[in-house]
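Please annotate the following for my students:
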Amino acid sequence: MADHHGHGHHHGLPASQGLVWALGLTLTFAVVEALSGWWSGSLALLGDAGHMLTDSMSLGLAAGATVLAKRPPSRLHSFGLGRAEIVAALINALAMIAIVVWISVEAIERLDKPGPIKGGVVLAVALVGLLINLGAAWLLSGDRHNLNVRAALLHVMGDLLGSVAALVSGAVILLTGWTTIDPLLSLLIVVLILLSAVRVLREALHALMEGVPLNLDLERVGYSMAGVDGVVSVHDLHIWSLSSSRVALAAHIVIHDLAAWPATMARLQTHLKKEFGIHHVTLQPESDEQLVDVRGISDRLHTQSNPAEDQ
């Protein structure tokens, strides 16, 4: 068996730096926004503060997962701890769904029994929150291919939308006194957040179940490999995610001449890196002559076990 283990370039350090800075911003402002929401009576502010507080925990989890993912393989974890990023993304998506449920329940109660809201306070705090969230989103936008960072960015984008809702709510209340706008906007935002959270949850579960990465097509990869010079056919092809940014592939490769395998394997490795970004590859060569012999033996055994068919 020919075994090749390639390791793609990691962008963990920039990702972890962005996560730590975003953590500092959101945690600091979450406290300010929670106190302001309680004082002003605004559900939009309290909801956004809840988002940001949970996001602080989520960003901390994501930063920790990014550090773990960079650790080398060990005797207990021969592939390393890259899956920590996917687990963090799963937890973050579930936390976001829980927040959506809480905000929805609160908003429905507010629609039934609206209370007094200080529109000026809501407007001022929401404006600062919007700027904070824009900064955090910018810090995390550099590594969108990493599922863990995308899950963290989802939380920050939810906060950003919450800040916009609070900003509009504060302006409307200040100008018209219509307090119902506050829970209405909260419900609109949670729908948008829920759609993104479900998408991240689906991707994380798919990766944990060792599904073929959603950006790759198993059949297309197989046909592409079969077209490489020296390859007769490909079977037992498997593709799965080692982490949110590393993909592994294993396959049996049928060739005419086993002596030519080293050159054929090198061509396959280069092809998979260039065309599909797959660096971790395990390939097993098989001679087409061996396959013919196996088929012949199988046919003879089948005939001997069914003598009645010859009569």
About this structure: The chain is about 65% helix and 10% strand.
